[in-house]
Amino acid sequence: MAAYYTFEDLSGGTAGDKKTDNPYHDLIESCSNDRAQIQKRYENHRVNRNGQQKDKLLAADFPGVTIDEILAKLDNPEQNPSYEDPRHCLVFWARPTEHVKTMVAEIQQALKKVAPSLWLMPQTNLHMTALEVTHSLTEPEIEALVAQIRPHAESITDFTYDHRCRLVKPMVSFDAQALALSWLPASNEPAQGDRAVESDDYTYHHLRRDLFSLVSGTGVKVASRYVIPSAHLTIGRFITKSDFETQDGSVDKRKFAQLVEEIEKINGWLKEKYWPEEGQDAKAGSEWVVGEGIGLDFRKENTKPRRKERSNMAARRDGTAEEEPLLGERGDASLPEGKPLYYNFVLGTAVAAQAGAWIITAIVWGAVLSNDLILFSAHPLLNSAAFLFLIQGILVLQPTHTAQQKKQGTYTHAALNDVGILAAIAGLVVIEYNKFDHNGTHFESPHAILGLVTYILVALQALVGFTQYFTPGLYGSVDNARSLYKYHRVGGYITTVFMLATICAATYTTFNVNVLQIQLWAVVVASILVVLGIASRIRLAKFGWLAGK
């Protein structure tokens, strides 16, 4: 067992009989891999620690808060213009959802009433350390570890796509140095969305165990201070004693009592508003699915961020970023919470896909409407319209990551696909009627064969997509139906390629050569735009083992 752990475990449990090199595994084993016991250990720790710290803060001989001297200097650049934190750490962060950020903002404002000088963690820096690889090293030492982990980093940051753990029951935890919002691993509490209760068997502690193993597998020795049963994100730190001193500089016991009273008041509010109640639906914002949709952040950073809040992009532009995401900004193609769903149609590289799809549709419609209309004219008009709607169906669902976004996105995805499929069926009826009416051949040209394959793929996609979401019982359980999602995603992208190939092949048909005269190069260029626009937003981790995860 590594011996880097500096925080006391107050959960009241004992380690398993078999010691391992993974400290997180030991707790899971001692809890018989039971989610309820694991939650109890987390609950015991935070309740006991809050009680311990309350007694400490209210004790007659309490000397006052412990000031974070480094953060105090960083927070006052006017007096310390050239000061830099010499310590660096390497971490995997879990970023909070917008619901959690809103909750934190309300708590911070309440705390400010009794501690006006409290340093508040900026919203852009809020995080929970899922795994601390190491801490308090020099920058060259960190860089050496980064080089060792980087080839494996993406598979680690994307691990939460297929290993989702849920946190519930938020509570403010505190000590003489800082305040944090702590959570418990879920255990059979009401869930938002269609998440099955059995999914809670994989807890946050399981995730921490697996992250430890994944990083250790790169050859890096994990030297973490945080292995106790706690899931928390820091929301404030003490950088001055002035809020809790009398005019003569002595400790003001009354103000500490007010602080503790305010914390207990906040915790009562959290319990009433956000804690799940048996037999009732989950309350909005009452849970946090760790890393859902956006994965984890792999970061090297100075151990303390400044108070002055600036955007990461601005900091990177002038080279003064205090924390560096080692795999770029995660979630660049994820719909921010609170943004309307239609943003997905143009989010990120969707603009390129839209350009390609609309160019193809415009070329076809322009060519058809520039000539005399006959019954057959409806075939390219309907099929190009179907193609356009099906592309929109992909784009609207790709960047969703919260439960609400996924629900809205799925219904919109289904509606767009329904319109597209109806148009495609109408286009098929037109061409087949025309073939029978003129004794034509069926499914012999490359365009016809590719078109037939595309129709079959679209039909299969529609069948699987509808049943796995709206009638999951057909697959035995919601989890079984969910296990098909990755195949449905892959199938959708394959179908898109066949659609584009069918359109390209249509430029060689007799009707196009003699009448429409659409140029192959134009369709190919537009098709490339569609592929690049869609492919650039794909999260390979969502394909599970299909992506080698």
Automatic annotation (TrEMBL):
Any one cellular-component term (Gene Ontology): membrane
Gene3D superfamilies assigned to the protein according to its UniProt record, in alphabetical order: 1.20.120.1770, Cyclic phosphodiesterase (3.90.1140.10)
Chief localisation class: membrane
Cofactor: heme b
Residues spanning the membrane: 341-368, 374-397, 409-429, 449-470, 490-508, 520-540
InterPro entries, A to Z: CYB561D1/2 (IPR045150), Cyclic_Pdiesterase (IPR009097), Cyt_b561/ferric_Rdtase_TM (IPR006593)
Domain of life: Eukaryota
Pfam families tied to this protein: Cytochrom_B561
Subcellular location: Membrane
Protein name in UniProt: Cytochrome b561 domain-containing protein
The organism of origin for this protein: Cercospora berteroae
